Model the fold of this input.
Amino acid sequence: MTVSRRSILRSAAAVVPAMAIGGALPGVASGATRAAQWQVFPITANSSSWYRFSRISFAPDGSAKALGTDNYLADGPLGPIEQDPLVWSFNGTGWSGAGFAEDTRPLNGITVTNAADAWAVGEKWDAAQRFDVPQLLRWNGAAWTNSMTGAESFARPSQVSGTGSDVWVVGSALESYAIPAVLRRNGSSWAPVRLPSTLGTAALLTVHVMTANDVWVAGSVGTGAARRSLVMRWNGSSWTVLPAPFGTAVGQVTSLLIRGGQCWAGGSAANRSAVAVWNGSAWSARNPASSSVSEVTQLAAYGSTEVWVAGASLALQRWNGSAWSGAEGPQAAPLVVGALATGPDGALWIAGSKETSSSTSYFFAKLPATA
Done:
């Protein structure tokens, strides 16, 4: 896959050393206060661009990639806003970014299995057919290629997750965007995974692969006022459809976190941010504070008890085991946090921006693992 001219101009930061800032975080240590501090990796954007981040994915070996978009005015100050996908790579000490071909739409999801193997999913404009076609892109350590063999019946990929050679993609089928579809990589090509016959109209929005025999998929079922949140679990041979995490409220699940035998589901219910926790038999509401229309799009674990959330119109917050509170980020609020992730060493990572009336700065930031 070729790299666009904009990719070269906007690959922005070469590897940037981290800067340690801030003080100890309140409430994250018992007894004596810890000296854990954020380490910030600044990103320099082209003067005509503004970035947004959507995902960070870590492999067990510590390699990582982050997904975002480069937004810019295509034809001068009065031109339309264009969006190119950007993928940032972490080499252990810093982040560097690169883009894709001109005809690639913003991508939806990314997963990294090791330093030389990653997957990204989305769509691109097909000029000959004059409509968007799906893309299942694979990184081989040197370049991205479109790997659609076996996925010809897939229409719109929403998200991807994988571990080792087991990679799953969720989205919709070619027949209709209202028909859910799941693909699984068998090592050389994609194969469809049969869904429960009772599922009906559904939107599959996210997937989390724990092992080959433990896969979680989430989104929504139904349409309009009948749309309800959805979480399903694959055990290696069959699906279990769990009760709706957000009950009878109109809503959807857009993020999942599996930790300590529990499933955390984040999304929206009745146009408000929503979080629920599954303990194996029932859901318990853990809704973060929100005073406006919002949605949880990111969940990440930190330490033995904490869960952090971010999302659309939702300030960074953390659960300390009993309650939510505003989370102290790497810079003073307000921050736009586009992506959250937990590294294999237990560190918490975020990607986002600090916006003022006169300027915007972009960064990755790391909160080292608790002792």
